[in-house]
Amino acid sequence: MADRRNGKGEPTRRTMLAGAFGAALAPVLSVPFAGLLMPTRAAAEAGAAMPMAREVPARLLPVPSTVSPELQAVVGAPLPAGWQDIPADADGWRSLQRLSGAGPHPILAEIRQKLRVDVTADKIGGIPVFISTPRDLPVANRNRLLLHLHGGGYVFFPGEIGAGEGMMMAGYGRFRVVSVDYRMAPDFPFPAGLDDATAVWKALTASNDPKRMAVFGTSAGGGLTLSLMLKANAAGLPLPAAIAPGSPWVDLAGKSDSLATNAFVDNVLVSETGWLGAAAELYAGGQPLDTPLISPIYGDFAGLPPAILTSGTRDLLLSDTIRAHRKLRRAGVEAALQVFEGESHAQFLTPFVPETEEAFTEIAAFFDRHLTV
Amino acid sequence: MADRRNGKGEPTRRTMLAGAFGAALAPVLSVPFAGLLMPTRAAAEAGAAMPMAREVPARLLPVPSTVSPELQAVVGAPLPAGWQDIPADADGWRSLQRLSGAGPHPILAEIRQKLRVDVTADKIGGIPVFISTPRDLPVANRNRLLLHLHGGGYVFFPGEIGAGEGMMMAGYGRFRVVSVDYRMAPDFPFPAGLDDATAVWKALTASNDPKRMAVFGTSAGGGLTLSLMLKANAAGLPLPAAIAPGSPWVDLAGKSDSLATNAFVDNVLVSETGWLGAAAELYAGGQPLDTPLISPIYGDFAGLPPAILTSGTRDLLLSDTIRAHRKLRRAGVEAALQVFEGESHAQFLTPFVPETEEAFTEIAAFFDRHLTV
């Protein structure tokens, strides 16, 4: 077995250890971390002698019975056709971008109707936005306002479709929500989207109390939420009372372990070798991918607002999410984490699934605890 | 491709949809959950027509650069030799159990010395225990006391080695800790271990204020922590002010999705087809595996104390952990979650690794917030 020998074909220290004690000891050597300490150390020492990549065999993932029947349909959906097709040039990206935003959008009408939300298009700070207002706005939320930044790899979902997550938050959380239709690659790479988000944030905080505000978004929108916080913090702009980055794309340099462990397990993004990695380069536009305002995991999180982060066990960006959570905690920021069983990237946004209402309800409760009335 | 056709070899609705719009649309269809809503719904409908198991190809997992060098040695360690060897009979289990507890344990001496902890053996409520006391006991912790339940699949780590996690908590958190050397399978299956834990809990709460107490443990010890809470809650016994189940083994019936997704990704437990699944049967001793006091995920979590749960992205029991977290939250219990990058089962217990100190520090801070001084 490959894991029993080092690169030179010699027995590893671990193999020798097992050999020395005989086959009967082998299962105990497999137990170490389950509460044992000494073998843990032995494993660390064996690893220190030769930390190495691990071969994982092909496997079949059943549809889990541990999620709602509605979500089982989503978890059990096949890989999206053509996930690995990357546009050859800017025109190819533009054409996909247009398709990703092209209406009509019956699902948006269904969300507005079922969750009782009204939506209007407007401009704030010169930037196009969609404003979602719940028909039953609770008294406590009359002076509160959320800023929403949509996902789509900084390329997809221009126009109203990008505001869908904002409409769901307005419906489930009964907050007023401003969704930013920010400029995107290929025509407007970094920092255009961040500039647009900043312009709206500045305009909104000029006439609203930031202590009554929160910022949220998923995937690229979660990364952009954190980038906006880094920029505002460094520039001395007001910060909101809370943020909610969902499956945030915080490391466009692709260092997260879940890009390997959840590759082909995630049935949304599938693998960074698909369009995601290409979109990172497109958005960065020649800037280093580990630039903190592009990949906020490389920034300074000290002083950021309380945060709630959301992911799924099959999410290709699970590591992006939990790395951001840990870095916030290490910086002394109050930060909550919720991870949903069996969900691939951003599947907590799937409309009309029980787990989605649960995710939004948690985020709304977090906002309610942190925002001044 | 298997994911493009249903069981009858017919094109799926998804394939037909992609076909109808042409190949150029395919990558957009892969984007849906990244903030988009309409294709999400389309995917759900396609899945509803045919939710199915997913084939995951063989892969190579690099050692992540996103963890400390000390932890890289642990993450990059090969699969433990003989992880899949299951004892043929009770004598085989007994022999492994003895080996798992056999000293000397130089790592325990190192923990006591470096973390400045004194340990004594004693009996409480008639049950053997190890009491860990930090040499510098903070004034705030003088009247506080933690109960520790060790891991090891309800079979392994009798004696002092099982108290190692308790010594680390005493050292990192500077709390007094009582570690229970409870009876285990094969000679003492369920409910012997739970009975022993209950006896110690009753004896301790007779002379200590439960509001100044917490209960914690990892793996089987995390499951046992929750089982003890279910039993105490149902019996009207006092409950502690907080609990900390780490990578808790809450579903011995094996329904968790991560048993599939992290099989052969986790380099500690490796796969439920190894000793873990056999230990579940051994511990249950003929009782149904979904008995709530055996698999607490099937119990009623209403009224349980505030909890902090810990896991790793490669943990075979990641889903056990996050399912318990979500169930606690749905029951209205305050519950925090922390997940560590690249860590397999219970690797947050690896001594003298920065991430371990981080994990213990979080748990200790959670206890400090919830326990009466």
3D structure, described in words:
The structure is a homodimer of 373-residue chains. Chain A is of the alpha/beta class and 373 residues long. Chain A has an eight-stranded mixed sheet, sandwiched between helices. In chain A, strand 7, helix 9 (220-235) and strand 8 (242-246) form a beta-alpha-beta unit. Chain A has two domains: 2-49, no CATH class; 90-370, Rossmann fold. Chain A has 13 helices and ten strands. The longest helix of chain A is centred in the last third of the chain and has 17 residues, at 354-370. The N and C termini of chain A lie far apart (62 Å). Helices cover 38% and strands 14% of the residues of chain A. At the A-B interface, helix 1, helix 2, helix 3, strand 1 and strand 2 of A face helix 1, helix 2, helix 3, strand 1 and strand 2 of B. Chains A, B: InterPro entries: AB_hydrolase_3, AB_hydrolase_fold, GDXG_lipolytic_enzyme, TAT_signal. Chains A, B: Pfam families: Abhydrolase_3. Chains A, B: Belongs to the 'GDXG' lipolytic enzyme family.
Please name the defining characteristics of this protein.
homodimer, disordered N terminus
Helix and strand topology:
The structure is a homodimer.
Chain A: H1 13-21, H2 26-30, H3 38-49, E1 54-56, E2 59-61, H4 69-75, H5 90-101, H6 106-114, E3 117-124, E4 127-134, E5 145-149, H7 164-173, E6 177-180, H8 192-207, E7 213-218, H9 220-235, E8 242-246, H10 258-261, H11 275-284, E9 307-312, H12 318-330, E10 335-340, H13 354-370
Parallel strand pairs in A: 5-6, 5-7, 7-8, 8-9, 9-10
Antiparallel strand pairs in A: 3-4, 4-6
Helix pairs in contact in A: 6-7, 7-13, 8-9
